[in-house]
Each structure stands twice: as C-alpha cells, then as structure tokens.
Amino acid sequence: MISAHVLGFPRIGEHRELKFALERHWRGEIDADQLEAAGRELRARHWQLQRDAGLDFVTVGDFAFYDQVANHIQLLGCEPARFGFVEHESELARYFTMARGVAAEKEAQAECACGHSHGEARHALEMTKWFDTNYHYLVPEFDSHTQFKLSSRRLFGEVEEALKLGHRVKPVLLGPLSFLWLGKEKAAGFDRLSLLPQLLKAYAEILQRLGTAGIQWVQIDEPILGVDLPAAWRDAFAPAYEALRRADVSVLLATYFAPLRDNLALACSLPVAGLHVDAVRALDELETVTRQLPLERELSVGIVDGRNIWRGDLDLALDRLRTTLAHRNGRLWVAASCSLLHVPTTLREDKALDAELQSWLAGAKEKLDEIRVLKQALVDGPTAVRAELFAARSAQAARRSSPRVKNPAVAERAATLAADVDQRHAAFTRRQAIQQQRFKLPAFPTTTIGSFPQTAEIRAARAALRRGELAEGDYVEAMHREIAHAVKVQESLDIDVLVHGEAERNDMVEYFGEQLEGFAFTANGWVQSYGSRCVKPPVLFGDVSRPKAMTVDWTVYAQSLTKRPMKGMLTGPITILQWSFVRDDQPRSATALQIALAIRDEVCDLERAGIGIIQIDEPAIREGLPLRRADRAAYLAWATHAFRVSASGVHDETQIHTHMCYSEFNDILAEIAAMDADVITIETSRSDMELLAGFGSFRYPNEIGPGVYDIHSPRVPEVDEMVRLMRKAAEVVPARNLWVNPDCGLKTRGWPETEAALRNMVQAAKQMRQAG
Ligand code: GLN
Ligand code: ZN
C-alpha cells in the first residue's frame, strides 16, 4: 500500500491573491465576509491541486490569514490577556490585533531595511523565524494564568469545507510540545512545560472532534525533534503521545528541517500510528528509521525537497524509496520533506525565466507532480511513468552539464587561492593606528548604515526605467540628484563618514544578484515571509562571477561631491547566499566562497577608485546557523572565512565595516570577532545597550557602532536618550572604539524624521566628545 501526501501547501496563492485580499481588508475596502470568501477560494483551489496530483489526502489546517501559529493560539483559546479583548470583538479582528498590534495602521512605516516589520507592532505578538527558514511566526505567550480551551471553530470549519468538496482530509496540527517550545514565558521563573497536562486535554478534545467528523489521519507536527532538546522536554514526548492515543484517529507525527540524531530512537518509539521524516535534510538517517520504526506503523518519507526549488532527481529518489519499501512490507507514504510553504506556488511559465531554467526548477505545484510520479512508479512500475521519469532525467543531465552552471575559471580560482586570502596584512591594532592617521576622525565618529529614504519618486523612477519609459541616462541623472541630496544633508548635519544612500538599489541582495553571473530572477516566485509579506528570492543556479564593477561609479560620484570619507556599501556573501534559493549540486560553503570572491573584487575596485572605507553588510550571518549546536562550528567556520575572503583584498589603510541587525550575539562573539572587520555596527537601541555587555566582557577587540536609535519607528529620539545610551556603551566598551550610528538603514523612513533624528544623533556624539 503506497500513499502520497504533502505536509502543507503555500497559502498565499499563485498570484498572491491572499496578500492582496488581506491588504484590501486592512484598508477597509473589503469586509470580513469577503476576506473569508477569498480564503475559501484559495483553499478549495489548493486542495483540488493536491487531489488532481493523485495525492491520497488533501492537507487541511495549513491555511492561515496571517500565520499558522496564530491560528493555533485561537484554536486553543490562549490569546494573551494583555490584549484585553472584549466579548464583542470578532475572532478575526482579535486575530489581526494579535498579529499586527494596536498601532497596526502604522505598520507600513514600521518596516526596517531588512524587510522585517518591528517598531509600532510592539504591542503585537513578537515575530520570530520559523526554525531555520525565512518564514516568521507569531510567538505564543505563556504564564501561569494561561488556560487552554477549544475556542476557534476555524479548523473544524475548514475540515467540513474540504469534506463537502469530496476530499479525503488529513488535518494538520502543530504538536503540543513544539507549540510550547516555540512560545515565550512571560513571567520570571515560570516553566512553560508545566502547561503540558492542561494543553493535552485540549488536544484530546480536538482529536475527538476530528474523529467524530470522520477523520482517520491527523498529522501532528513536532519539528522540535530536530533540535537539541533538554531532557525534560524529551522525556515529555512519550507520555504526551500516550495521552493522545485514540482508537478512532491515527496520528502521523511529522518531523522536518533537521536530522533526528539523539531523538531518533524516541521518534521511532512514540505510540503514534505513523512517522514522517525529512529524507532530504537527513537522508542518511532514513535507513536507521526504516529499521527502527515498528513495522505496524506507517513511514512517510519526505524525499521531495520542500525547502528548495530544484526539480528533483527522481531516479535517485525512486531508488531510495524502493530500498525503504523492501524493508517496510510494501507500505510507505511518499511526501515532500516539509510543508511546501517555503517554495513558490509554481515556477512553470514564469515570464522572467527562459525555458531551460524553468525546466530545471520545481515550485509547489511541480513538486506535487513529482510526488505523483514517484508514487505511480512504485505502484505500477517505472514504465507507467516512463515519459515523466525521462523528462526529469534529461533536465538533471542538462543542468549538470550546462555551461551556464559551470564556469571553469571560477572553479580554478577557488581551487588555487593563496593560504592568506582571508587575512588582512597587519593585525587590527596596527591597522587602527594607520587608519586613524589617514582619516583623522574625531572621538565617537558618526555615520549611518547605508540607505536613506527610498521615496516614492525613487521607486517611480525605477519602475519607469523597467517599463522603458525612462531612458537609462535620465535614470542615472535622477539617482545622481538623490545622491547629491543625501550628501548635502549629511554634510549639513556634520556627519563624519558619509554614505551615498543606496537610492539606486531595489533590494540589497537583488541589486547585486542582478549584476552577477550565476543568478536568475523570477517574475512570480513569491514566498510568504509573514502575514501579507512575501519575498522573491533570487535563484542562484550557477558559478558566480562578476562581469564588471557593480557599485564603483555610484560611489565615486558620491565621493566627488564631498571631502569627507564616502563609505562604499556592499552586501556580504553570506547574506546573499542566505536570502537566495541556492544550488543543491555543491555545498553551500562552495557557493559562499564564489560570492565572496566576486565581492572581494568589488572591494578592491572601490579601493582602487579611492574609496577608503567600505562596508560589507552581513545581517544574515546568524540566520544561517544550523538548528543543531553540533553543526554550528562548521557553518561559522566557512561563513566567517567567506566574509574574510571578501574583505581581505585591501591595504591596511582601508577601513572595512560590517553591519548586522539582530540582537543576539553572545553565542557567536568569537566568530564575529574573527571576522576582523575594523568596525561593526549593530542593532542595540531597543535592548537598551544590554547587548553590548557581551561584547564588553568578551573584550571584543575592534571598533563598534552600537545603534543609538530605533529606525523602525518615525519617532525622533531626544539627544539625552542617545547620550545616555552612549554612556552606557562606554561603560562596557573602550570609548576610543565606539562609533555613533542608528540601528539600521533608513530606507523605510521619511526625510523629515530622518534629518531630525540624525541632527540629534550628531549632537549626542558632540556631547560625548565634550564630556571626553
Ligand atoms: N546597508 C543596508 C541599508 O542600510 C543594510 C540593511 C540591513 O542591514 N538589513 O539599507
Ligand atoms: Zn540592519
């Protein structure tokens, strides 16, 4: 008996219908009923796709108007009391309040340069990354008053909806342990695991109701089985699933994103009817699981990659599945490794991709088809799907041998790097002296992180250029005007190290990807990041090289307008890697190195053109951390190596900056220090400089610019506030190493508040100097 299914399907819609419906609803243009109708239509369409692909179930419960964890909070009736919801507020209104906060109308302004929304949404539930993906979930809040009580009928309604459409339904639920794990304790000394017994009662009720609705299989996701778990959490699994055992409903326990390792035996022994494993991220565990999982349980093999967009090697997959099948008494479920939420709905017929590239790629719809083909090959034998297997094989072969993928010069260069390619010439203290001589900056030098307001005019000019309505020369002229304006403002504010403002950049990764060989861009390859927000990651398909300089003209133009140092502005190799779909035919480390070499060439060109200070942004280094602690050192080693390769081609008198915008460094300080940037700017204002303490006690050796104000809000900070923060910083980091700058780039801000905030910031720096 072979079954086929997916753990979840993208909900945003092939044409981002959900995004647009949500935004219309938030603007008051459509009411709740119309929004619900839009959701219903998308669900129906996505279920039909699963059915048409011959899957044995449609997955229900993966849909959400904002986030599946937020749905779960309402299902369990544990909306935090702090929202003070009152009786008459509708479930949907409460949902959006939790998701977007009370100042939600300001949300559009509350986005920072990294594309994440924070700021005004301070009253909303916190948002954080879903494991190691770029999806963000809303963080549940727990304290000793938390009560679980089945509240929302939404899930059951959707189940009915699917049943009415004649589908065989498999609901999905986030598992009780993962749900608690992903939440946050809101009271000191409170242990959220203590909520488990109460929570299990609610789950039992959910299962009972699903059973009554005639549901046979329920998928329960426990992705935390792929992380390092404290013993208490691990020990909680067996009794929890024992408590959820029922005669009428079978549980398929789903794990994904990481190998099971020390949790493997536990996962195989839990009293559930089936286990799903990620056979892409943890292929080498498949054999052990195949042997350890008792034969009467179902094994779901996630063999189609749910995290990347490559068309799969079906021959290889089939081979693995056959081997597995032979040890499972002919019973097996074929699946994608994880929910397809993390890939675009489709990549076929994408207008921006040529036919060849399209034939190498697979979005969610195409992956459904891969699952169908694999199942059919197992059931009816490979000849039944000979044409499909042949097409997949040809695409694989074409991709493997394509000159678009392999560039011998790139490989040759990467293989023959000098041993010291990632080393600056002199050590930091020596460089610091040389650079002080050269730039003669005052104490507490001021700078910004790179971008200035991306005004509507700037975006209109870029759109007109794209549509061919604005000539290239006119576009350049318009951008030069923006740069000149930014320079003039910075000079009048008396900022020490200027930036050109990044007016010409659409996005900090796309801008570079578009100019490098090896990248492709889709027209419609959207992936949900959170809520209505989607990203369209570049597709890094081939060896990376830089046909010509990418930023030199703009930077040199900006420098020509001022005597002050103009900081060159680049995106670092790990951030480019992390925010793209990357190739699966070579290790990520090899791809990172190729990007690093291209950026290195740009750094050297900037230096040659007279640019003395160059910033290489790496906001995404932390995002790349593997889920398992044991894997982190290896990642950090190649990631920091790549950064250093990009930064080390210059002379000692050239000052390298880097920028990272997140607020957790303590566990990676040694590696951040090893990156050896002359100056690092970080986000600290919202943590009240607490974050710097770690840098202090670690004795971080190089210069640091701890952000003195939050750029996520239009609020203009007072001089005194920033002086207070700088004083706090000076207590833990030697004052001579401190810079003064905002938390992040200013592209989402308007000019008036930007100027006012920077004026106060410069004032604060001057007060620090006087206090000396
Ligand atoms: N230089 C970029 C900017 O200022 C950095 C953005 C980021 O850190 N995410 O926009
Ligand atoms: Zn930033």
Automatic annotation (TrEMBL):
Binding of L-homocysteine, residues: I449, G450, S451, E502, D617
Cofactor dependence: Zn(2+)
Comment on bound cofactor: Binds 1 zinc ion per subunit.
Keyword Transmembrane attached: no
InterPro entries membership: Cbl-indep_Met_Synth_N, Cobalamin-indep_Met_synthase, Met_Synth_C/arc, UROD/MetE-like_sf
Residues the entry annotates as binding 5-methyltetrahydropteroyltri-L-glutamate: R16, E17, L18, K19, K129, N134, R533, C534, W579, E623
Binding site for Zn(2+): H659, C661, E683, C744
All copies of domain Cobalamin-independent methionine synthase MetE N-terminal, residue ranges: 4-324
Residues covered by the Cobalamin-independent methionine synthase MetE C-terminal/archaeal domain: 444-766
GO molecular function: 5-methyltetrahydropteroyltriglutamate-homocysteine S-methyltransferase activity; zinc ion binding
Signal peptide boundaries: none
Protein name as it appears in the record: 5-methyltetrahydropteroyltriglutamate--homocysteine methyltransferase
Biological source species: Piscinibacter terrae
